[in-house]
Amino acid sequence: MSTMLTNKKKTLPVITGVAILAFLMGILVSSSLKTSSCLQAFDSEPAGAGQPAVTGESPSFAALAERLMPVTVNISTTKIIKGRQGPFMQPFREDPFRDFFGEEFSRRFFGGRMPQRDQKLTSLGSGFIIDKEGYIITNNHVIEGADEIKVKLSDKEEYDAKIIGRDDKTDIALIKITPNKDLPVAALGDSDALKVGEWVMAIGNPFGLDQTVTVGVVSAKWRKLGMGAYEDFIQTDAAINQGNSGGPLFNTRGAVIGVNSAIFSTSGGSIGIGFAVPINLAKSVVGQLKDKGKVVRGWLGVVIQPLTADLAESFNMDKGKGALVADVDANGPAARAGIQKGDVIVNFDGKDITEMNELPLLVAQTPIGKKAEVTIVREGKKINKQVTIEELKASKAYAAADAGTEEGLGMEVSTLTAALARTYKITAKTGMVVTRIAPGSPADEAGMREGDLILEVNRQPVQNMEEYVSALNKMKSGGKILLLVKRGNYSQFVIIAPDK
């Protein structure tokens, strides 16, 4: 059985033991609510069509669900695949109609080819209404590529929807229906104020079972799943399944604090590890989608990588916090401000950078043209730089580096020649090319690959074998080697611990 991380879309509506599970959950929830006072009162964040917060008796999940179901919608999409073979038609090397009925029949009725037909691919998801005009937030992967989008409200009324804008980098989309009545509206909360251990409720359309309610707690914040540079997931154990994508995650005050997006699963179903896009991130995206139909992001012009403990030691840093600059775009804002390879960014625009992944989000949400103060550490000294943020173009990438003589290191290197440059598609003019990696060697374990170009050894540029060997010979016995390695269009720092 394999483990997978998946976005939640439609699967076959298989139901097993639902009645028993619902009965047991009802007993457990009822019992816990009678004896527990951990739920917060519904206070300053009302949801629904201008309805006041619930007051009086102690809050319950039942009262919360009743109030919030109307703002949650079910989304079904259809995508037309043109000219595909039917499900029972297999392609033939020769035309069977010509074989059985003759050339003239085949030409007149089928153009000499086997008949084909369009296919419809359908999927299910969820969403929630954010204003009375009919704007709805959902996931990009729910509506991406759809030829038809249908939205069904909690009262079963159904509307056609159109895409206002979508953003694949955050997996957020904004769609719109044209309602014939006032709609209930979800209140958007503050995901930054969310705390681990808080109760949350998810409402959605899992496996096509509309208006399904599940509850749990916030398991963690700031989760990075490796799905992109602009991710910052809320983790919850509230059951999220296929079809929950795009649906709301509520706090106990009835405010949306996340957009359910993905699960970690061994079977395709919930095992209590679900992920939601924080609503604060979604709000910044949706505002631009509504106004411009697209998202404009800030650009700093650097390639960064995590500052591991080994790298922190090599750069004379006390703590492995910050974003290590592995490469700088020569025509970007960072280069013009004097930021260099090997600098460690520890603060951006007044916000400390404790993890590398925090920097792309901060830069992306910075207004274009703003002069942001960036604090770097260079050779143990803090330096402040002022950077004018530019717009991230489609051709540019705010990237994080992948992580990037044979004896002792387990790799063979050669001085870059025109022939090697052609073989490994290297555009640089100088450096040392890795031509072989021994499996299980220190170089292999450090992530080095054949075709990597070594630019520096222990912060010393190397352009030929003599410089490369000289730099290695300066190392103390048993010491770790710091390499600056270029792979493709990006470079990164790599630590190799030689065999003793």
Task: Describe the secondary structure blueprint for this structure.
Blueprint: E1 4-7, H1 18-35, H2 61-68, E2 72-84, H3 96-101, H4 103-110, E3 117-129, E4 135-139, H5 140-143, E5 148-152, E6 158-160, E7 162-167, E8 172-176, E9 187-188, E10 199-204, E11 212-223, E12 233-236, E13 248-251, E14 255-265, E15 274-278, H6 279-292, E16 298-299, E17 302-306, H7 309-314, E18 323-328, H8 333-337, E19 344-348, E20 351-352, H9 358-364, E21 371-378, E22 381-388, E23 390-391, E24 411-415, H10 418-424, E25 432-437, H11 442-445, E26 453-457, E27 460-461, H12 465-473, E28 481-487, E29 490-496
Parallel strand pairs: 9-14
Antiparallel strand pairs: 1-14, 2-3, 2-5, 3-4, 4-8, 5-6, 7-8, 10-11, 10-13, 11-12, 12-15, 13-14, 14-15, 16-23, 17-18, 18-19, 19-20, 19-21, 21-22, 24-25, 25-26, 26-27, 26-28, 28-29
How many runs of DSSP E, i.e. beta strands? 29
- Corresponding CATH architecture of the largest domain: Beta Barrel
Strand order of the largest sheet: 6-5-2-3-4-8-7
- CATH class category label of the largest domain: Mainly Beta
Helix content, binned percent: 10-25%
Largest sheet: 7 strands, antiparallel
- Beta-strand level of the residues, as a percent range? 25-35%
Number of domains: 3
Morphology: elongated
Total DSSP helices: 12
Roughly how many Å apart are the termini?
39 Å
Radius of gyration: 28 Å
Short description:
The protein has 500 residues and is an alpha+beta fold.
